[in-house]
Amino acid sequence: MKYSGWPTPGELVVGEVDEIEDFGVFVDLEEYEDKRGLVHVSEVASGWIKNVRDHVNEDQMVVCKVLEVDEDAQQVDLSIKDVNDHQRSEKIQEWKSEQKADKWMEIAFGEDVDDETFRRVANELIDIHGSLYKGFEQAAIHGPEALDDTNLDDNEISAIVDTARENVSVPYVTVTGYVDLEAPGTDGVEEVREAMQAAEGDGEVPDEVDLDVTYVGAPEYRIRVKAPNYKTAETQLEESAARARETIEAVGGTADFHRERRTEEE
Questions:
Q1: Which of 71, 88, 141, 213 has the fewest CB atoms in 10 Å of its CB?
Q2: Three-state secondary structure along 131-158?
């Protein structure tokens, strides 16, 4: 998504070198609609510059610091030399992440999504989470709860969450569920223990997944899954509960899976 306004002094921006002159470099700002900036030759690199083309090329992507903005003159003064390597790398990564998020918006709402809908939804995510990418990332981790404070309707929230869970890779996510295990007869305790062991996987759980089954309070047991992404975590949680159910029902017992811990009153 490109911003319709103007950048602010001190901001880091990504741009493509459009034109090179002896006095400086013209840069098209990738994050702003129809905005162009100028890097004066003195701001291209430190020290004396014999030839600007020794330092930049046309069509090169650069990270610049905004020095001054004159909206009346439609002028943005930029500096390349004031951006260090760490800032450059971090800004490029941030920009690439936002490009990914733009694609996710098209997946969620269709490639023909109108600009008004795109901006309205995107601005909701940006207002709550700071960026469009982080909005999708939080939706992948926390589901609809991550969008509780937005003004999006249920269909829009569902579209974002579904798209995020299918496309966003986050370092690790943790999901939790509960299963009530009960077995009749004198061997009930041992049969419940075997169902718990089945839930833990016994070699069926992928190496990148951490799955833990713990006793909460009779007859309730907690299944906690930590995985590289939400889809894997949910799949492993469901499969764990299914293994427990199959094992306990084979001996005449019952299993009831639920996502929230139940109170004693329930």
A1: 71
A2: CHHHHHHHHHHHHHHHHCCCCCCHHHHH
123-179, pLDDT tens digit by residue? 999 999 999 999 999 998 888 989 999 999 999 999 999 999 899 887 788 899 999
Containing 109, the helix (H) or strand (E) segment is helix 85-109
- The CATH code belonging to domain 12-82 is 2.40.50.140
Specify the pairing of strand 75-79 against strand 61-70: antiparallel
Q: Which of 244, 231, 246, 248 is nearest to 178 (CA)?
A: 244
- What is 173-258's CATH topology? Alpha-Beta Plaits (3.30.70)
Strand pairing category for 210-217 and 254-258: unpaired
DSSP code, position 127: H
Sign of CA dihedral 28, 31, 35, 39: negative
